[in-house]
Amino acid sequence: MAVSRRILGIGGSLLMILACILYIVSNAVPIWGTVKVGQATNTIGLWQGCISIPGYTQCSALVCLLPGSTPCIKNGAARAFVTLACIFSAVAALCLLASAILTDLSKLLAMMVKIVPFSSLLVGVIGVGVGINLVTYKTVFSIGAAAIVGILALILNLAGTILAFLIQ
């Protein structure tokens, strides 16, 4: 049974590391939503917006002009939850790796091995969902590459969480 726990722990840890990397990329890349107007392409991310024309790209930080408005609230929530997903998935990877290395799991670590990956999945679903809603609801933007990377991170996170729950 120890070999099985080691395999599940290492596999889950690798999946959570990949999910963490994808969450970080998704959080950083300003292509959550994209729209093409003539030759210009406008993109929006969680932290920046960009406009590109052939041979030139200009990006700037997103600033909320109306701090209490729905888009500003959604943007803040998406930023917070995707950032938490980055952190939780990294911690989950460490917990799963510890479960693979240690021969005897303490009760605390045994609980953390299951709770932290699930927490990462939960905040990831909220963050990616709110981020996609931010750029697509009542806008002309279509879903962009960073949002798709966020969805891939969720899939890896789900697989890592399933492996974590299989650990005895």
Protein architecture, described:
With 168 residues, the chain is α+β, with helices and mostly antiparallel strands. The chain has a single domain, classed as Four Helix Bundle (Hemerythrin (Met), subunit A). Strands 4-3-2-1-5 form a five-stranded antiparallel β-sheet. A hairpin with a 2-residue loop joins strand 3 and strand 4. It is elongated, with a radius of gyration of 19 Å. The N and C termini lie close together (8 Å).
Short recap of the structure:
The chain is an alpha+beta fold. Helix content is 66%, strand content 14%.
Count of DSSP E strands?
5
Low-pLDDT runs: none
Q: Approximately how much beta-strand content do the residues carry?
A: 5-15%
Largest sheet: 5 strands, antiparallel
Look at the structure and give the CATH class: Mainly Alpha
What portion of residues is helical? 55-70%
Number of helices: 4
Mean of all residue-level pLDDT scores: 93
Transmembrane segments: 7-25, 80-103, 115-135, 141-167
Keywords: Membrane, Transmembrane, Transmembrane helix
Key terms for this structure?
168 residues; transmembrane helix; alpha+beta; 5 strands; transmembrane; Four Helix Bundle (Hemerythrin (Met), subunit A); 5-stranded antiparallel beta sheet; membrane; 4 helices; 14% strand
Q: What's the structural blueprint in terms of helices and strands?
A:
Elements: H1 2-28, E1 33-37, E2 40-44, E3 48-53, E4 56-61, H2 70-101, H3 107-136, E5 142-143, H4 145-166
Antiparallel strand pairs: 1-2, 1-5, 2-3, 3-4
Helix pairs in contact: 1-2, 1-4, 2-3, 3-4
Keywords: Membrane, Transmembrane, Transmembrane helix
Transmembrane segments: 7-25, 80-103, 115-135, 141-167
